[in-house]
Amino acid sequence: MCAQLFREQVIAAPLADVWDFFSTPQNLNKLTPPSVRFRVLGTLPEKMYAGQLIEYRIKPLPGVWLRWRTEIRHVREGAYFVDEQRAGPYRFWYHEHRFTAVPGGVQMTDRVTYEVGWGPFGWLAERLWVRRQVTAIFDYRAKRVAAHFRGATAA
């Protein structure tokens, strides 16, 4: 059974600046907690594009390194993009990022749909550990986004 995480955040900055930041794959490092030990493998272009594969490794537990490959499935410049897991720790991972100009800045919306897999063990792991980890990563991300755009003013 799939689980979902839904987040909204208003960023006090122009849409073009917010899009530029999020469409730059190198910025993934800035948005991931150091505890995850996120490392991009290989080189990345300056801007994402539909069909792009991004491979990285993470360390979710002490002594456990995992490789993760995602594909940028859909991109609509300045509006949204979707990344989907191709290989990695989840049975299914689909992450929609949406950006909408609103008074005072940009409303960023994330919807992550994921499934751990592993039958009843995965269900239990999701309830006891994975959900908290995913939530903590997005809590960290919200703080980093707010800090990055602090002092920016919306157009």
Key descriptive features of the protein:
155 residues, single chain, 2 helices, 41% strand, Alpha-D-Glucose-1,6-Bisphosphate, Chain A, domain 4, 7 strands, alpha+beta, seven-stranded antiparallel beta sheet, globular
Structure description:
This protein has 155 residues and is an alpha+beta fold. The protein has one domain: START domain (Alpha-D-Glucose-1,6-Bisphosphate, Chain A, domain 4, 2-Layer Sandwich), CATH 3.30.530. 25% of the residues lie in helices and 41% in strands. It contains two helices and seven strands, in the order βαββββββα. Strands 1-7-6-5-4-3-2 form a seven-stranded antiparallel beta sheet, covered by helices on one side. The longest helix is centred in the last third of the chain and has 30 residues. The radius of gyration is 16 Å and the shape is globular. It starts with a strand and ends in a 7-residue tail after the last helix. The relative contact order is 0.24. The model has no long low-confidence stretch (mean pLDDT 93).
Q: Quick summary of this structure?
A:
The chain is of the alpha+beta class.
How far is it from the N-terminal to the C-terminal residue, by CA? 42 Å
User: Total strand count, please?
Assistant: 7
What is the N-to-C order of secondary-structure elements (H for helix, E for strand)? EHEEEEEEH
**Bulk shape:** globular
Helix/strand-derived category reads alpha+beta
Biggest sheet, strands in spatial order?
A: 1-7-6-5-4-3-2
Main sheet attributes: strand count, strand direction, barrel closure = 7 strands, antiparallel
Summed up, the helix count is: 2
State the oligomer: single chain
> What is the CATH class?
Alpha Beta
**Overall number of structural domains:** 1
Average pLDDT reading: 93
What are the low-pLDDT stretches, counting only 5+ consecutive residues below 50? none
- What is the CATH H-level superfamily? START domain
Beta-strand level of the residues, as a percent range? 35-45%
Which fold name is given in CATH as the topology?
Alpha-D-Glucose-1,6-Bisphosphate, Chain A, domain 4
Query: Helix share of residues?
Result: 10-25%
Radius of gyration: 16 Å
CATH architecture: 2-Layer Sandwich
